[in-house]
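User: Structure with magnesium ion, tokens only please.
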Amino acid sequence: MIELQNAAYNYGGGELLSEVSLKLAPGSFHFLTGPSGAGKSTLMKLCYMELTATAGQARVFGNDVRNMTRDDIAEARRRIGIVHQDCRFLDHLPLMQNIALPLSVSGKDVEAEKGNLRELLKWVGLDHQENALPQELSGGERQRAALARAVIMAPDVVLADEPTGNVDSEMSQRLLQLLIELNKMGKTILVATHDLALIRMAKSQVNIRVLRIANRRVQLAGADL
Ligand SMILES: Nc1ncnc2c1ncn2[C@@H]1O[C@H](COP(=O)(O)OP(=O)(O)O)[C@@H](O)[C@H]1O
Ligand SMILES: [Mg+2]
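Assistant:
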């Protein structure tokens, strides 16, 4: 689905990530960990094609990102659901419309999708909040809303950057369950987190791989978590 081969990224102050090779096979569930500032979000952006590797190669659905046109990238992104670290909602729109945004942006008939939208809100436990504005939601509700928006287009891949940032452990567990359900549906999942407790929780429930960023390199972590 997504593959990096000897990829590097440099914002201008030297390489932040070097010689990164990883492969997200269909249906796999990966965690990406490492200290704050290690480059987790940067690596997620390479996967989402928000950034282009400054050396080496990134392939998304088999295509070398460097050879993709804007249209190719837009099309590939429709198959990738993303939960941004900062959620990024439009503050003036009620929750239902925020979650429907990817549908309206891609020209779909939102009215016709109302049933699906309600089902999705119910799935994340926010069916009673469809008219709430983003700022009226709690941190955990916003994170669940962000996950609902990420999957509204039925993506093959879900990238979640710190999906449990600022929520308590009960809510983390709830979000994790949603991610596990998506993985069981066959979706390829990559979750960036510095929360080792979350990774341990996941490990006891489902088959995951843990990638760790250390000294600019990404390594597959052993059983020592
Ligand atoms: N747009 C940018 N320009 C320059 N430096 C950046 C930019 N975005 C992130 N960085 C730097 O890259 C490093 C890694 O950031 P990030 O990928 O967000 O790490 P993490 O998600 O692991 O905390 C940080 O030192 C950060 O300041
Ligand atoms: Mg980050």
